[in-house]
Every structure is written in C-alpha cells, then in structure tokens.
Amino acid sequence: MSSQKPLLLPWLIKQIDSGLYPGLEWTNKDHSEFRIPWKHGLRQDLLPDDSLIFKAWAIASGRYKEKTDSPDPTVWKRNFRCALNRKTHFKVVKDLSNDSVDPHKVYHICQSEESRQSSQESCKDELQESPQDDFPGAGVACFPPASENLTLGHDFFSNDFKGYEGILEHNLEEMSISNHMLSETESLMLNNEKYTGTFQFGNSTTFLPSECHEAYNIPESATEAPDPGLQQTQEFRQEVDRTFINEQMVTDFRVSIYFRGVLVAQFPTVRGLGFQLLFDEMPNAPGTENFIRLQIPGTENISDTQQSRYTERILRKLGQGLAVKVQDKSILASRLGDSHIFWSLSKFDSSCHPQEVSKHEYTEVYNFGRFVRELHDFIESRGGSPQYSLWFCLGEVWPDPNKRPWEKKLIMIEVIPICFEILKNIAVAGGASSLQGENIELQLSDNPSLRSLLESMETN
Length: 460
Fold this sequence. Notes:
Keywords: Activator, DNA-binding, Nucleus, Transcription, Transcription regulation
Main location: nucleus
Strand content: 15-25%
Helix content: 25-40%
GO molecular function, one term: RNA polymerase II cis-regulatory region sequence-specific DNA binding
Number of helices: 11
Protein name: Interferon regulatory factor 3
Strand order of the largest sheet: 5-11-10-12-13-16
Region (Disordered): 117-140
C-alpha cells in the first residue's frame, strides 16, 4: 500500500499560490514557471525561512513530525529535491543557486493547460499519491533537471546512463593548470576594498558564527536517490569551472578570528586574489595595495587584563599583518610585521613541529595537487578527509611545544578555502557517510568514475 502523502504537483501549486513562503513565486503570467529560494547550507546568511517550503513538504509527505522528530533542514531539502527530480512535471530552466545575492532556481511545469487546471481543482481535496506516481512514464516528455548534491555510485553505470561514464574524466582532462596570475585589470577591481569584522564600528556588517553547515547525506533508499551520473557531473563541472578561471585557481575564503578559543570576528566570504589581515590600517603600504584588507578587532572586550595586555602587544607588533594569496594552484602566506606567525592544517595539531610563515616572502601552505591526492586517498580508504583548513597562530609558537590546546593561544586565525570545501562535499555526496567522530572514519561507496577522475587530476 502506498504512503499517505499528497501529489507533489497540485500540492506545490497550492503553496505557490498561498504566498506564505518568501521567494517562492510564479515568474510568468500563465503560471507555468516558478522560482524557489535555494541557499546552500554553508552560507552564513542562512535563515529558518529559507527552509520553510522544504519543511512543509516533509510534513505533508509524512517524513517529519514536529512534535516527535528533530528538525533537519538538510534532509528536508534533499527529500524535496528528490521528489522534484522523480517527476516528469518539473524541469530546471535556470539554476542560480550559486548566486551570492539571491540564490534560487527556476522550474518549468511540463504539462498541458487542461492538465494543469485539473491539478489546480484537485488541490481543493486531500489528494493522495498512488504507487504509479513514483514511476512516471506517460505525459509530456521533460528531461530530469540538472541539480546538485547527487549520488554518483553503483547506479551510475546502469544502461540508462552509459553515455555519461566518461564525462567527469573528460572534464578534468580538459583542464590545463599553468603558472600565471589573473590579469592586472581583474586585480585592480579589488583596489582598496576593505572588510571589517564584528567589532568594527560604522556601516560595516556584523558577522556571527555559522550555526548551520549542510551535511551531504546518502539517500535512504533507491527510491530516494536523485538521478545519478549526469546531474552530479554537471555540479562537479560547475564547481571546477568556478575554481579555475583562465587556468588560474580562484577561490573565496572564510576567515575566522579567535581570542583564546572565542570567536571574535568572522568574514564569511572574502573574494579576490588575496587578503591582508591586520590590526592598524596602513593604506599606503607597498606590495599589498590590491589585497582586500580585513581588520582584526581590538582587545576592549577582553575582561582578563593579562590576556588583554599580551594580546595587545602582539597586535601592535603585527605591522602590515598576515597576507594570504592564491598563485597558480597554490595558497601562499607571508607575514609583514614583527610578530612571528606559525601555521598548520589542524587546530588539533600535536606534531610538535612548528612551521613559521616567512617574513616578506611567501610560504606555500596548501595546493590543489595535495587536495586531490588527499581526496583520492580518502575515497580509497587510505586516509581521512582532506585537511585544507589553514590555522595561523600570531605571536606564539604553534603547535604548542607543551601540547597546550589551540584554545589557550591568544590569537588564532582559521582560513578555509571554500573551493576545497565545496569539492569535498560533492565527493562526499557521491556516497560518504556524514558521520564524524573519534572512532568513525568516513567511507565512500564504490565509485570507479570518481576515482578515475581524481587520478586524472593528480599532479606530481
């Protein structure tokens, strides 16, 4: 017997007409196309309203009971997307889910006017879904939409998708990564742009810690899995195209500043060729004029007088601070002041082998080739998840020679290259568990195509 849930098409039409969901609305007069907000779960500006329509479908389809179940917006969104992908009624005509200002998708409803009127009339009743509805066959032929976060696993090699087997490999074979920077014109567009953080006064934006990070989940069953192969290929290709422009790696950064383990400022999206983290503004300093400047907050909110005094001393000696930039396929760092800076790839680093950032010279702290190798080892169960978060300790040796935790350090800076975060999440969506813990290692399902892809991307 079929599950007791309404037909998606008439249900969704009714929700759009209701006007109860911000951003969910018709985009043309004949109501054959609609837009739906589609924010990525990693965005810092994610709000509860952004998940309302996904939550509503979870309730209507019986997959979420408010009084007994824990809320999980990630699962709601995934199940809603899967429901759309299984129906021939819906076709993506515009995917702006990566838009920085207004992320959304536009869908076209593929049906005749007569059929649509019938669907609208049926909204008046409590329609239930029949077993046949899960196996669309008749009706207007609309190809399944290209969406994100889709499973690339065993079914990728089914007969229906044989034509897509080599697409991922081909996409990366086309990439040629050579040693040159973006054009001077593109660099100058960033001149004198300044970002300020939590304690900066004036018209600056206050950024708070992220409370919602989207976990990519494995579909619970074959009926929940989105269309394999093509859609994840398109998502991966999209992100590769965004990561490499004119054969130069380009990425946004997420920068977080901690005073003894307490988050005091966060810059969710730092764009450009590089950025400069400093305490005192020195606008005419040579060599950094094209970098975005991020200002470290002062110590006025530190109640401990000794901590405040030592932190202030480090900041005053910081000079032009810490510079981080992307060059070719590498991420480089340099210190531009008298306060020594040490770095590692983990806030739990216990190696006791400090690595210092060079003064006035750039030190390579990470590169694309290393990420690919680590991701490949992760998929092959030879290693853990890639460690691409960069941790900088200002004014103190790190890792601590006495094995003191990172929360004891006066100033720690976390820098996350967002391109690596997104690419890893796409790979995880191909079959990895989202569980993490001390005794749990993430495992990917057998995925020959993704493995071949990473092998083709590996560099010496």
